[in-house]
Design brief:
With about 475 residues, this protein is mainly beta. It has one domain: Porin (Beta Barrel), CATH 2.40.160.100. About 10% of the residues lie in helices and about 50% in strands. The chain has an 18-stranded antiparallel β-barrel. The chain is globular and about 70 Å long. The N and C termini lie far apart (about 60 Å).
């Protein structure tokens, strides 16, 4: 009987231990459910639905059957099927600020996407995204809105651990690649077609504190036909991007970025100059959050050569934001940016800043002006009117950094006009109202109004005030 009692006690202890372990495992799985439930995220390859491999994490939501399709008993081997449908109505009374005749533009842009994301354990992944893009009834067609059924992204990832703390990965193929603050290397999401690249991207991650990205790519040249897109061999973009996360008892969140970009391409900087350009950018960024305050500082220095000219340019960005714990959760922000211009067009130095693949709608939703020879200051206020409804109002001042240089077009970077020097620096005063409604994880509605009130410098070059309206419906799964 003692033996039996002893055995019963051992069995009971084992059962309790196993129950405790399973309980801990269950809590661990629940804690590792992403706060946004894995997606759909802004960039589709950032989605992470592996947590759905644990049936306890499933809620019965309709999309989960597509988010996670198990392919074996290994929960790390699964397929995600997803896509996007986006319809954007746009109206501009002066799409080119009146520099081109009859530049009123009204259209409906349609973006359709379908992707498959195949995960074969932790080490190997295949991603394929097809897209169909068109704009209807546009008086002034935007090339980045047109591309019949074609491969938007196609790549594979292979990653492995060098040791317990260090992981290395490789991504050859075609992919979207926003970097850092997404000001210099953005996505161009306002257009149907994002910036896509053909080439290689590799990375090294050390714990959660350090990430190093290296890449050598060529931008994709989009054509209107089906399956005819190809790499633009006239441009090459390579570089390294390092992100370090810092922790301190006096700091809630803090990150430091350091990067180097090398851009080689044939370029038409001014209306009377065309040639080969090699432009290098070295930048540093410090950003983070302390209590209700967030901050972001970035400095970029550029050097290289364009024809016989030496490039010496720079840019400075900053942003402060403050979240107020009151009704409607007011968020107040102040954003300022400076992109250098050239104060002497006849010397052997080119001092006009140029972004590699810039955020085209940075200054306004209408995306008229390039990130060159510009000083931009924008205070804004955001309010959560309802749990899923946000309203943002802003007023911005846009000026030339130097009067002797021109005003440049986004995203081409070509001068708006042959006239460079103006008596004033004032380009425009920009007032914007944006209403955003997240109906669900998958469905979003957005309305944006932008008034770009022409300043004296723009008027001297023949420009006029532009009013822009967009109404967007976006469905992702």
């Amino acid at each position: 009987m003692e033996m039996t009692g002893s055995c019963h006690m051992k069995v009971k202890r084992i059962i309790l231990a196993v129950s405790f372990f399973m309980g801990v495992q269950g809590v661990y799985a629940q804690e590792n459910v992403p706060s946004d439930l894995g997606g759909p995220r802004f960039i589709a390859w950032n989605n992470d639905y592996q947590y759905l491999g644990n049936s306890d994490n499933r809620t019965g939501y309709w999309a989960e059957g597509l988010n996670y399709i198990p392919l074996s008993q290994n929960p790390e081997t699964y397929l995600t099927v997803g896509g996007e449908g986006r319809w954007m109505y746009e109206y501009l009374n002066h799409a080119s600020a009146n520099f081109e005749p009859n530049d009123r533009n009204e259209s409906v842009a349609q973006r359709l996407r379908l992707f498959g994301d195949l995960h074969l354990n932790k080490n190997f992944r295949l991603f394929l995204e097809l897209g169909d893009n068109w704009a209807y009834d546009a008086e002034v067609p935007t090339p980045a809105n047109y591309d019949a059924v074609d491969i938007q992204q196609a790549f594979f990832d292979y990653q492995f651990k060098l040791n317990e703390n260090m992981q290395v990965g490789f991504r050859p193929g075609r992919f979207v690649m926003p970097l850092g603050s997404k000001i210099l290397v953005s996505t161009r999401d306002g257009s149907n077609l994002q910036y896509n690249y053909d080439g290689l991207r590799a990375w090294l991650n050390y714990q959660d504190n350090l990430k190093v990205d290296v890449f050598n790519v060529k931008p994709v040249k989009f054509k209107r036909g089906s399956f005819d897109d190809q790499a633009d061999n006239s441009r090459e973009f390579k570089g390294i991007y390092l992100t370090a996360s810092m922790s301190d008892e006096n700091i809630d969140k803090a990150n430091f970025d350091l990067y180097f970009f090398d851009m080689n391409h044939d370029r038409k900087i001014f209306t009377d100059q065309f040639g080969k350009q090699n432009r290098n950018s070295i930048g540093a960024r410090l950003y983070g959050q302390k209590n209700n305050i967030d901050y972001d500082f970035e400095y970029v220095h550029q050097f290289g050569d364009f024809g016989e000219k030496d490039i010496q340019a720079y840019a400075v960005f900053s942003k402060f934001g403050y979240q107020i714990d009151q009704k409607f959760n007011p968020y107040i922000a102040l954003q300022s940016m400076l992109f250098s211009g050239d104060n002497d067009l006849n010397d052997q130095k080119l001092k006009t800043f140029e972004s590699p693949f810039s955020r085209t709608a940075l200054f306004s939703g209408a995306a008229e002006f390039g990130l060159m020879n510009a000083l931009f200051i924008k205070p804004s206020l955001s309010l959560n009117l309802l749990p899923k409804v946000n309203l943002t109002a802003s007023y911005a001042v846009l000026q030339k950094q130097t009067k002797n240089d021109s005003i440049y077009h986004a995203p081409s970077g070509v001068s708006w006009n042959d006239h460079y020097q103006t008596s004033s620096k004032d380009i425009a005063n920009i007032t914007e109202l944006e209403l955003n409604y997240d109906y669900s994880r998958n469905l979003n509605f957005n309305v944006l109004f932008s008034n770009v009130d022409a300043g004296q410098a723009l008027k001297e070059m023949g420009g006029k005030t532009n009013n822009y309206i967009s109404v967007t419906t976006q469905f992702k799964f």
